[in-house]
Amino acid sequence: MNISESYDVVIVGAGHAGCEAALACARRGLETILFTVSKESIALMPCNPNIGGSSKGHLVREIDALGGEMGKNIDATFIQSKMLNKSKGPAVHSLRAQADKAAYTMKMRHTLENQDHLTIRQQEVASILTTRDRAYLEKIGGQSCEVVNNPVDNVDKSVDKDTISVDGSDFQTKERIIGVQSVSGAVYYAKAVVLCTGVYLAARCIYGDTSMWTGPNGLMAATHLSDSLREHGVELVRFKTGTPARIDARTIDIAKCVEQKGDVPVVPFSFSTDPKDVQIEQESCWLTYTNEQTHKIIRDNIDRSPLYGGVIHATGPRYCPSIEDKVMRFADKDRHQVFIEPEGKYTNEMYIDGMSSSMPEDVQFAMYRTVPGLEHAKIVRNAYAIEYDCLAPRQLMSSLMFKNIDGLFSGGQFNGSSGYEEAAAQGIVAGINAGQYVLDKKPLILKRSESYIGVLIDDLVTKENHEPYRMMTSRAEYRLLLRQDNADLRLRKYGYEVGLITEEQMEKLNEKEQNIAREIERVRNVNIGTGERTQKLLEKCGSTPLDSGAKLADLIKRPELSYDLLADLDPGRPAYPQEVRDQVNIELKYEGYIERQKKQVMQFEKMEEKVIPGDIDYDDVESLRLEARQKLKEFRPENIGQASRIAGVSPADISVLLVYIRANKEGKQWISKEERADVHS
What we know:
Blueprint: E1 4-12, H1 16-26, E2 32-36, E3 50-52, H2 56-66, H3 70-77, E4 78-84, E5 94-99, H4 101-113, E6 118-122, E7 125-130, H5 134-139, H6 142-147, E8 163-166, E9 169-172, E10 177-182, E11 187-195, E12 204-207, E13 210-212, H7 225-231, E14 236-243, E15 246-248, E16 258-260, E17 285-289, H8 292-300, H9 323-329, E18 337-342, E19 349-353, H10 361-368, E20 379-381, E21 384-391, E22 408-410, H11 420-438, H12 452-462, H13 487-497, H14 503-524, E23 527-528, H15 532-540, E24 550-551, H16 552-556, H17 578-589, H18 591-608, H19 626-635, H20 640-644, H21 651-665, H22 673-677
Parallel strand pairs: 1-2, 1-11, 2-6, 11-22
Antiparallel strand pairs: 3-5, 4-5, 7-10, 8-9, 10-11, 12-13, 12-21, 14-21, 15-19, 15-20, 16-17, 17-18, 18-19, 23-24
């Protein structure tokens, strides 16, 4: 007899998305079960040994602001930390930390294993179960209805699987998730299910002629779930990613490489981490370069590459190409950067960042050994490409719930994205909204005007993504407002509303906000005279001397000056922590630009507030161009703002759609010219 258990939420997959989703549910008191093909894959870092980076650091800070775990986990396990883009403006400053891979996984696993209301199960999930499954209809009864949060009590189980009969009347139902089934046949009923399968679905690892149906690092692949999803109408696509070789550190001549040290002092990722706790002795990374000899070996053997020989048909990430791709696509470049990064304190494995490959083993040995410092390198693990099944994400709503299956959510690389940070960001949102669904509350929808996570999810559900999606600062229209330093000020309130941020954390945030506002107001009213002390400090900083008195706020706005640099001219200054001082400096220095973006956001949000009825029939909307009609039917946008971002939908189409919605709302067959002119207001 097969096992049968009931939970509030099932999470499928324990990578970075699954970990955040599981914690987001369990920490709210929802009984949650987390499935993984191997407990060794929990929070695994199968590729690069770092968290954060350009734009990705923003995501980690936002995850932390919502109450997630990634920032805390990397703060506890990093071996080097750097703030990237410090020579540029604060909008693109991004924190990046090298992780001790083993420690990162162990720390996250410890957190999960000791979380109340969370069960971890090493078992492969073979299929999802919905109200359209005949097995469910045969089983459904009073208790089963309770388990799946079904309001229907008097169900006739003899009816066809596409209908439910209540008190003798049949009616059509939208497909709803009721649980999952494992490969052993065990059934796990749930009110919501979150798919976070990463790169494990029908995964195949490839280098040269060697091809193995396994997940990353030789772990098991998930071989059954894809078929079940297709049977339930889910459209899957085939993507690929890759990883470079790992080299034995004892065989690397670091004297031929340029040392890359970490920052002092270290800035933590988590707003909850005490900065004093992350001031550690850091490991170094090393920089070297490929050369023409490297490139010649690759070109001479390009016909043996699975990428160019037709063995790999899946699409890879354009912004993280393999070394053979770089050499062939950028033939004019005579060298490419290669970063040698330690994988942890207690291993000799070094990650060769910048030389991802799927070339045959003998070619790998030859090309790596042409790089200065790697002439005698011994490979511990070969580089390989991995292709896998993932979702066409236009099937999702902004809540990350499937449009056609209530209660089924999805997050992470399975949604067609790349990167640990993108995965975790989607995971926490999918987990939060699975909890909101179970508790019958409104979903949390983060707008692209208020978070990088909002940009990420909106891009996934409204754009045609033909390759793994990677977050970049250039994708955010309002990035001066969406800085990594103010993520708590932007998003902490949402974490509090859904129960992941404590009262104490909110009180601390409120105090920080008040201190920032109070100090900005104070420095606006501090007068700085033209005395000798002032002129000497300005001269020292390369700033123009004062001809007459000035407000301290105006001096802070000068490019060469800052709030901290002017401390000697401001003896009455309160002793605020660095995080408050940084916000005062940024808010004043970029005040004009910030106000301009806030006005742009107001216009943007007007379009987001214009909701498109869920049952709209686009075939009834006259004057829509054929392409726009097809795209709108395919993507089913939730509001006019989303519709305007769909490729193939023009501003003229948006105007037509607005007129139709206005007329339909007012029960009119037509709208006057005057009303039509007012339709955008």
